[in-house]
Amino acid sequence: MPQDSPDTNSPTTRQWKTLDKDLGRIGQLELAAQYVARPMVGLGVALAFMVIVGLLAALLAGAGSASGLIIVAAAVLGAYMAINIGANDVANNMGPAVGANALTMGGAIVIAALCESAGALLAGGDVVSTISKGIIDPTSVADTKIFVWAMMAALTSSALWVNLATWVGAPVSTTHSVVGGVMGAGIAAAGFGAVNWPSMGAIALSWVISPVLGGVIAAAFLAFIKIYIIYREDKIAAAQRWVPVLVGIMAGTFATYLALKGLKKVVHIDLGSALMIGVLIGAFSYAAAAPFVRRQSAGMENRNKSLKALFAMPLVISAALLSFAHGANDVANAVGPLAAIVHSVNFAEISGKVEIPTWVMIIGAFGISFGLVLFGPKLIRMVGSQITKLNPMRAYCVALSAALTVIVASGFGLPVSSTHIAVGAIFGVGFFREWYTARHVPSKSGPGKRLAVEERRRRKLVRRSHFLTIVAAWVITVPAAAVMSALVFLALRAIFL
């Protein structure tokens, strides 16, 4: 006998349907509330970290005196600056790996947080130039109180500018933000004569040199990979020959980079010695990578997808090394002015270089990690996927170019920005692909035939809107931070002096 079907019009059934609809509405409301409240969670955690830093500074410096209160306020501002560095600068190291799908967002954040903290605590310079690379002359600001408020204004303005740039979605140089802040406060405190204009000229020159050099080197490596690996008839055999070479170049480059920039706290190494270390480690890495690549590529299909798998692991390693080196160097942007304030308050003197206390370095390291975890994904996505499309080969060229460009610039004594180099390398890869594919139709055996002019104009592989926004942010970073710093200093002087 057929089973009786349920009565869909019975009062009980209608009651359950009504209840299900109500529960569905409540569930959607809860999801909407979570979506709206999510940004507030990040802000709350950041504020809690800054409060904890203030309490720590109060315990160490003593908040019962005016000098103790100044150190507490400076520590809170240093934590705020470190959070903004983590939210903005670290995207340059991890963005390409995430955009190339070699790392998930969660994996990138964990690796970056660990490597940034390790770089800051293990290899962070114990002596930093508190006047930000000689931008202002310490003797021009003879009064210790004026110097302290000038450094406070520089710290405040640079942090606010990086925060604004992160909110807009523009990766900017935190080094240049600090430089602009120090310059603006120095001008407001002692006039235009206090600024070391030749140093400022060199920094302005680096605005052009950094991204152009990074882009050219990244494009050159991508051209090499295309010619000698991607467009070869037997891609796997070509990869077995050249990928170990590229791994050796990467290892040697990062060894030189870290020896020059990341190990100042352990030992001082000149450029010649660093290059020798890089050559030795590069040769060793090549010897180790060759059999590994042969084993990994055994049985792979002769296609580009296989090549992407071969480049994925070197890309992850290079991103981790970049983060370590970034933590070792750029943490000084957060804690340099703070260290200057602590030294001036404790010793009642102004010094061009001071030692960074361990507790100050810890604030910088943890602040960068908190900023990365809480606010970093936005810039990581933008750098990794919204400027141009990246795969492991292209992203590898970006990471390698970032380290190599710093070494070349260091050899010529040029002050460069890691942010400008990394983003410039991404632009270089994108514009090279645009130039190359606009003129050739790729084929299995080689570049193929040339395209018509109309087709070239249609193929745009770099988003112009992001290009213009980022370049504009770079140009105005120093003057904007300088103006903000001068205004903050004048306000502080009017209130407290």
TrEMBL record:
So which domain of life are we looking at?
Answer: Bacteria
Q: Which UniProt keywords apply?
A: Membrane, Phosphate transport, Transmembrane, Transmembrane helix, Transport
GO function terms (MF aspect):
phosphate transmembrane transporter activity
Q: Give the transmembrane ranges.
A: 40-61, 68-87, 146-166, 178-197, 203-230, 242-260, 266-288, 309-328, 356-375, 395-414, 467-496
Q: Mostly located where?
A: membrane
Q: Its topology with respect to the membrane?
A: Multi-pass membrane protein
A GO biological process of this protein is:
phosphate ion transmembrane transport
GO cellular component term, pick one: membrane
Where is the protein localized?
Answer: Membrane
Similarity remark: Belongs to the inorganic phosphate transporter (PiT) (TC 2.A.20) family.
Q: Name the chain's protein.
A: Phosphate transporter
Source organism (scientific name): Pseudodonghicola xiamenensis
